[in-house]
Design brief:
Blueprint lengths: L7 H6 L7 E6 L11 H10 L10 E6 L7 H14 L3 E6 L9 H10 L4 H4 L2 E2 L5 E6 L5 E5 H4 L3 E7 L14 H8 L2 H9 L6 H15 L2 E9 L5 E4 L2 E2 L3 H14 L11 E7 L10 H4 L15 E7 L15 E3 H5 L3 H11 L9 E3 L2 H10 L11 E4 L7 E5 L3 H5 L6 E3 L19
Parallel strand pairs: 2-3, 2-7, 3-4, 7-8, 11-12, 11-15, 12-13, 13-14
Antiparallel strand pairs: 1-16, 1-17, 5-6, 8-9, 8-10, 15-16
Helix pairs in contact: 2-3, 7-9
């Protein structure tokens, strides 16, 4: 793709004015478990189910592909607890088709989160081989990771949160970790094969087969608050997972942050990636949904993504949810890492390439220039660092008076409006 700075596109955008911006703070409820208290909390929760792990057992612990708060500490603590019971833990990558649907790629994803054999003090067994367990009551074949199935017991470690593409009683949590994560590429494909409109039914039906036929001991999901901090960890005995997960999902919804202004014209996202959401950004925040089966988030006309995180290893799934991206973002895209997700999930919108421009400044200008029905002298622009950390954001001057008057409880200005600073290459210098 021929993307140049100083060509026709640059000329057409040259005079588009970017409004002054000010820094703002968003305040949300903040129930939290401090990182130092996490090992003790895990030991306390798992002690309730200690009778299920006995000396000499080989215990599989799941680890997924999401950027979960304190994930390395959580995973290591579970492994340490298993050792305290005289059993031998090992970690299983449970991430469906992520990591390019290869054993090596999934190890690479875990290493990016600090989950290595040296750091965890136990073996990581990564493979894409599965065992077929039967058929769910929705007619889907059920698969599970071969290493996990051959263990003496499986501990489902995961995050529990609202999903970014559908709604149901079971969204992202233990049931999805079993059906999609432990199912590897084959299992994930079965879950998604009927389309996103049926996934909310397929997940619990497949999870039920896994609970019944595989050595699942219990789940220990974590829930995060609006600041991407661990706020709840709870151990759930295997027979209780299907009953308890929907209850915890309601709590997880109550902890979700939001962009308090509710709507605007342009949304700038500094960085996206798999460490922030399965679709690069969480559409529950940004409003950029890839399917019609979920709604919410901020309402804007245009969205630009400025960069892709290192932790994504080139998997830019979600890029298609933007209207504009930068050349540096485009250059980081690895279709070998991204397309296996699309093939497995059947959702192609997330992988479509939007408009690509030379730099950050032109990405913002193109969004402003193509908004319709607005007063460009008072354009409403929202800037966030990513979709996980929105306690500190930037807003354009059009919001300033309303913020100062207290229009949105929990939102306050921490600076006055000022011009954004770009370097000679058009890259954004001003920090949030």
């Amino acid at each position: 793709m021929n993307i140049i700075q100083g060509g026709t596109v640059s000329r057409l955008l040259h005079d588009v004015k970017i409004p002054q911006m000010f820094r703002a703070s968003q305040t949300f409820p903040r129930e939290v478990i401090s990182p130092g208290d996490i090992p003790g909390k895990i030991f306390s929760e798992l002690s309730k189910l200690a009778h299920k792990v006995n000396p000499g057992m080989n215990i599989a612990i799941t680890a997924g592909s999401r950027g979960i708060a304190n994930v390395a500490t959580i995973t290591r603590s579970i492994a340490d607890w298993v050792k305290s019971r005289g059993a031998t833990p090992f970690i299983v990558p449970a991430m469906g088709s992520h990591g390019g649907a290869t054993a090596e790629g999934q190890l690479e994803v875990l290493a990016g989160y600090g989950i290595t054999e040296a750091a965890m003090g136990c073996e990581i067994r990564s493979c894409m081989d599965t065992v077929e367990l039967g058929t769910s009551d929705t007619g889907r074949r059920v698969f599970i990771d071969k290493n996990a199935y051959s263990s003496d017991g499986i501990i489902i470690s995961c995050r529990l949160k609202p999903h970014n593409a559908f709604r149901g009683d079971y969204e992202s949590g233990p049931c999805k970790m079993m059906a999609v994560g432990l199912g590897k590429q084959k299992g994930a494909e079965q879950v998604h094969s009927d389309g996103m409109g049926r996934i909310a039914k397929n997940i619990p039906s497949i999870a039920k087969v896994i609970i019944d036929k595989a050595p699942v001991l219990f789940a220990i999901p974590s829930i995060e608050n609006a600041y991407d901090e661990t706020c709840r960890i709870e151990a759930i005995d295997a027979p209780d997972i299907l009953k308890r997960e929907p209850e915890l999902l309601k709590f997880a919804f109550s902890q979700m942050p939001s962009l308090l202004v509710g709507e605007g014209d342009v949304l700038i996202v500094d960085e996206t990636g798999k460490n922030y959401s399965g679709t690069g950004v969480d559409p529950n925040i940004t409003g950029t949904f890839s399917t019609p089966y979920a709604t919410g988030g901020v309402k804007v006309q245009r969205t630009c993504f400025l960069n892709l995180s290192d932790e994504s290893h080139g998997n830019s799934l979600g890029v298609g949810l933007a209207d504009v991206i930068t050349k540096k973002f485009f250059d980081r895209i690895d279709t070998e890492k991204m397309y296996p997700n699309c093939i497995t999930s059947t959702v192609l919108a997330s992988a479509r390439i939007p408009c690509v421009v030379a730099n950050d400044k032109e990405a913002i200008q193109l969004c402003i220039r193509t908004c319709t029905g607005i007063d460009r002298e008072s354009v409403r622009v929202i800037r966030i660092p990513n979709s996980l950390h929105i306690g500190h954001i930037m807003l354009s001057a059009a919001y300033y008076d309303d913020v100062m008057s207290g229009k949105w409880p929990g939102l306050s200005a921490v600076s006055e409006p000022e011009e954004l600073v770009f370097d000679d290459d058009g890259e954004l210098v001003t920090a949030i």
